[in-house]
Amino acid sequence: MNRREIIVASFGVAAGAIVSNGQAAQPYLPAQIVVQNENSVSRSGIPKSVVYSTDFDLDENPLSEGGLWLHTDTTLTKCKTAGGRAFGTQSGTGGYDDSNAYLMGFGNDHEVEAVIYRNPDIRGGGDRECEILLHWSDDGPLRSTEYGDTHANGYEINVQHAGAYMTLGRFKGALLAQVNRFAMPKSGDKFRARIEGQRIRVYWNGVLKIDYTDSDGALKIATGNPGIGFFVDRGAPNTDFGLDSVIVRAL
Fold first, then answer.
1. Alpha-carbon distances of 63 from 50, 72, 204, 216, 221, rounded to whole Å
2. pLDDT bucket at 14, cuts 50 / 70 / 90
3. Which CATH architecture group holds 3-250?
């Protein structure tokens, strides 16, 4: 999805969290997987109370947390953590090589809730984006798109650092929904997205912003994992816009 061209037109301006018997296969602190009630299960057969949370307390490049976060697509860039926050690792000049990482073990119905970090002294041009990924995978066959080759597929929800846009789309594919001037992000804001079946809902500080059901039988993405991502362009610093924490839930 070439979201930047869409935004320009709009404004007229130039890991694997493997859960077995209610336990994390690779227990890791401060990241935690908690199963509160194994008797309530999602349609995917995963306990609904499977929860993964992290405050990104370790400095890691790439983000791993004991091998729980995955990234295998070499056409894209990896996430990192520094100073208790998660960021991307893009140069900002490499096109649509978004940074991303994802978790496994949550089934196809899942939710990601993230707490935003925004540098209060952002300067210079270039978009900075935080992304939530749903039904994500990055180990498929290489596919060519007009926005570049990739092994990755899934839904991405992007929020821009100055609040100019929030978008939902298929990765390097169709734009499905867009909200212009959704808010002015600040540190501490809560960014949440969930998918149940093919219905995707996106919230900003608890307010529903997008409610979209992907009913395109040929193109809809029916399976995949929860994750996070980042994007910068025009050489913008990765560390201007990131995440302070993340909670992932099976639904």
1. 21, 12, 25, 34, 25
2. very low
3. Sandwich (2.60)
